[in-house]
Specification:
This protein has six helices and nine strands. It is α/β, with parallel strands linked by helices. One of its GO terms (cellular component) is cytoplasm.
Length: about 230
């Protein structure tokens, strides 16, 4: 039985979708809020041939919130690049993400017609998804996100030397007071060292939030990597 909450989606505006985007929310949020937030940034965040999925994370105890129950993709010791990852918690959500991808595969959408991305913790989950769990996806994106130092993602992309990895769009505000810009830069540069190609965009005067310019960049990225077929 799935641990995920309600699955909100934006249907393609054409007759049948030939691609899928999975957009993960940040900690303590939900799929419906992520969908509405994106819509407020870019009113026409829809595509004639692409279905956009906004899953909701399972409700579980979250250590940075004092152990209170929260909708989070996985637990972590602290919101800090220097702490180790809670690998058992990440492994639990791995099953759910793989099931989401498999449902799309079973519906006729191959992994190379799927893009995975997210905001904050959702972006970190997208990086695990793209560079550990299904490297055949079309592309990934992460907004206001980072990976911990010594993340298992880095270990696995090192071992994937010679394998083509999904391209990455990473976006971050220059006054983010929750996830320091340097953490995001370190994440992007380490992934790049191990063969991940992509783009890193800094948003001026932006804190830990989406903005219109950034969401437009995501929309362009989706259209580039999931063209109509």
């Amino acid at each position: 039985m799935s641990r995920l909450g309600a699955l909100h989606l934006t249907q393609c505006t054409g007759q049948k979708h030939t691609g899928t985007v999975i957009f993960f929310h940040g900690s303590g949020s939900c799929g419906a809020d992520m969908k509405e937030w994106v819509r407020l940034m870019v009113a026409n965040f829809s595509f004639p041939h692409i279905k956009v999925l906004y899953p909701t994370a399972p409700l579980q105890a979250y250590t940075p919130a004092g152990g209170q129950m929260s909708n989070v993709w996985f637990d972590r010791a602290d919101i800090n690049i220097n702490v180790p990852e809670k690998l058992q918690s990440i492994a639990q959500i791995e099953t759910e993400v793989k099931n989401l991808i498999k449902k799309e595969n079973d519906a006729g959408i191959p992994s190379n017609r799927i893009i995975i991305g997210g905001f904050s913790m959702g972006g970190a989950l997208a990086l695990h998804s793209a560079y550990r769990w299904d490297r055949n996806i079309a592309a990934a994106f992460a907004f206001s996100s980072f990976l911990n130092d010594n993340s298992c993602v880095y270990d696995e992309v090192k071992q994937a030397k010679g394998i083509k990895l999904p391209p990455l769009l990473q976006i971050h505000g220059d006054i983010d007071d929750l996830v320091d810009l340097s953490w995001a830069k370190d994440t992007f540069n380490l992934l790049k060292e191990h063969g991940v190609q992509g783009e890193f965009h800094i948003m001026e005067r932006l804190g830990h939030s989406l903005n219109r310019r950034g969401v437009r960049l995501i929309k362009d990225w989706i259209e580039k990597h999931l063209p109509e077929i």
